[in-house]
Amino acid sequence: MRGDAVIDWTKEMRQTFEFYEVDPRTWQNVRLLPQVVSAEITCDDELPTGGSATFEASEDVGEVYVRTYLVAEQGGERSAECLGTHMAQTCSDDHDGKSRLLKLEAYTSLIELKGDCPPLGHHVSAGRLAGDAAAQTAAEHCRAPVDGSPGTVALAAHYRCEPDQTWLDLVAALAAKEGRRPCPTPLGRITFIPGRDAAALVPVWKFTDDTASIVRPEISHARDYYGVPNRVEVVWSGEAGCLSAIAENHSPDSPLSIENRGWVWLYRETSPDLEDPTQEDVQAYADSLLTDLSTVDHEVTYTHGYVPAVKVGTCVELDLRRAKVRARAVVASQRIVCGTGCQVEERAVWTEVML
């Protein structure tokens, strides 16, 4: 199935959902699953497996991969958009005296890497490119197709696995050395994506707080000043003696400056990574550390209709005037409800420098 028709996702359309069993050897759809009647899909970059799904079905389908499609029809055009590929695992049974409804808990293709561990003493040799090792390890220990990315970081020493590490832990640790993380695509392929900074990305979509964009008026916005210092003290000790430096936030434009806050929040670093520094080196370290720590994380939650371009890891522009939110943000999680309107509850995050 392909989603190459031209659909205007901001306008009215007919939406239905289709569920297919996936052959884990070919990774292709093999048969329609009419017994699956609905789904709720969660995508979250903070979860080790990247997300999960809950299916409702009239009968148990067993331990199989289920691929979910949103089928949109508009003006004679038909588009099938894949929402996710998940392996059904847990089945629970509800019966109201008239009909039987099963709930199937399912997980992304990364679950296969989480269920097994390397042999005791397993290691990845020094000199190997971390990205190549991550992709090869994933391909050898799961059935999903793996899209590797060229490795650039060579391991300086043998990477030895801990006794309780899973294959997924190992793959994630190797990918992290390249500044990447394993991520399942909607079709279930395993890719490795970089960490993303909203300020450096081009938005793929703009959301406003009118009813054509945000389908519910409830918008939740949170930011946290806790732990953000306005004074940093660095103390270095060595055979040559002791050096110290202080950096302070006195910016009139910063709400967290000493003057605007009205009190001091101190961060003290007593083990700086400096080798035989001068006083200028210690001061530069303190100034840089204050800049690094003077950031505030924001997150906003809202609900919108499904848009194919907007996925976890993409950048969106938020112009939510009633909530006083105007920012570029990275989508961190989504909950897709496969029902009328295919509504997506979304959490987007960004970091603001307060110096």
Structure report:
With 355 residues, the chain is mainly β. The chain has 5 helices and 20 strands. It has helices at 111-114, 130-141, 167-176, 258-261, 279-293; strands at 14-23, 28-32, 36-44, 51-57, 65-74, 77-95, 100-107, 123-124, 159-160, 180-184, 190-194, 205-208, 220-223, 231-238, 241-248, 266-269, 295-305, 315-320, 325-337, 343-353. Strands 1, 2, 3, 4, 5, 6, 7, 12, 13, 17, 18, 19 and 20 form a 13-stranded mixed beta sheet that branches. β6 and β7 form a beta hairpin. The termini are far apart.
Low-confidence stretches: none
Q: What pattern of helices and strands is seen along the backbone? A: EEEEEEEHEHEHEEEEEEHEHEEEE
Question: Biggest β-sheet, characterized?
Answer: 13 strands, mixed
Termini gap: 50 Å
- The percent of residues in helical segments reads 10-25%
* CA-based shape: globular
Strand-residue fraction?
Answer: 35-45%
The radius of gyration computed from the alpha-carbon positions, rounded to a whole number of angstroms, is 25 Å
Give the helix/strand class: mainly beta
User: How many strand elements?
Assistant: 20
Mean pLDDT: 91
Count of helical regions: 5
